[in-house]
C-alpha cells in the first residue's frame, strides 16, 4: 500500500495528515518508510539509517519545542506566515 502525501496549508492540515498516516502512533518501520513516494528503492541498510535519522530528528525537535517559550506578538491578525505579504515594486 502506497502512502499518499497531501499538500499542507496550515497546522490543522499537518495534524490531520499525521493522524491519517499513523492513527495508532506506531513507530516508523522500514516497511512503512518504503510506502512513501521516493522511498521505495532503499535497501534494508539504507532504510534503517533513514528511520534512525528521522527518529533522532524528531527527538531534537521535541526537545527544542518543549523548551520554547511562548511569545505574544501584538496585532498579528493580519499576518499570514503561509502567504507572507509581498512588497510592492517601487
Short description:
This protein is an all-alpha fold and 90 residues long. The protein is built from three helices and no strands.
Provide the fold topology.
Blueprint: H1 11-21, H2 30-33, H3 44-67
Detailed description of the structure:
Residues 1-21 are annotated as: Disordered. Residues 1-10 have a biased composition (Polar residues). The chain has helices at 11-21, 30-33, 44-67. By secondary structure, the protein is mainly α. The chain has a domain at 27-67. The protein is extended and about 50 Å long.
Number of strands: 0
Backbone shape: extended
Largest sheet: none
What is the average of the pLDDT values? Answer: 82
Helix content: 40-55%
User: Strand content of the residues, in percent?
Assistant: under 5%
User: What is the number of helices?
Assistant: 3
Give the oligomer, counting copies of the same chain as homo and different chains as hetero. single chain
- The structure class reads mainly alpha
List low-confidence stretches: none
Instruction: Give the topology string: H per helix, E per strand.
Output: HHH
**Through-space gap between termini:** 52 Å
Q: Provide the gyration radius in Å.
A: 18 Å
Looking at this protein, list some descriptive labels.
90 residues, mainly alpha, 3 helices
Amino acid at each position: 500500500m502506497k502512502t499518499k502525501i497531501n499538500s499542507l496549508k496550515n497546522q490543522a492540515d499537518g495534524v490531520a495528515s499525521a493522524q491519517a498516516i499513523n492513527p495508532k502512533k506506531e513507530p516508523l518501520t522500514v516497511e512503512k518508510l518504503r510506502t512513501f513516494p521516493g522511498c521505495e528503492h532503499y535497501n534494508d541498510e539504507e532504510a534503517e539509517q533513514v528511520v534512525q535519522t528521522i527518529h533522532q530528528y524528531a527527538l531534537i525537535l521535541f526537545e527544542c519545542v518543549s523548551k520554547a517559550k511562548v511569545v505574544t506578538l501584538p496585532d498579528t491578525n493580519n499576518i499570514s506566515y503561509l502567504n507572507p505579504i509581498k512588497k510592492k515594486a517601487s
